Amino acid sequence: MTAYALAHLRNPSPREPDVLDYLDRVDATLAPFSGRFLVHGPDVEVLEGEWPGTVVVIEFPDLAAARAWYASPAYQEILPLRTDHISGDVILFEGVAPGHTAAAMAAAVRALPAPSAAG
Fold this sequence. Notes:
By secondary structure, the chain is of the alpha+beta class. The chain has four helices and four strands; from the N terminus they run βαββααβα.
């Protein structure tokens, strides 16, 4: 199943020389894992809550490929170029199967056994 890496970058600083070096080199780290940028640092429109900064979304063929990319020596070598200058959070997650609906998810939750009361 398709997987994604999402980074919430709170204080983007793309003009920092180390960050520019990171940007020059990150594409080569993605290629062996079939990773590709879907979103890369746009201005965001916040509709609920707070979202300081920007977002990056990278698509991978599956969660194993996403994990392997992040742990790869090539990516770990350049990672401090970003993390030393930009704070944020990075998560990996799978997408949904074709035909997924929120209503089907609600039905699956309703079908779960009721939690037992702690006594």
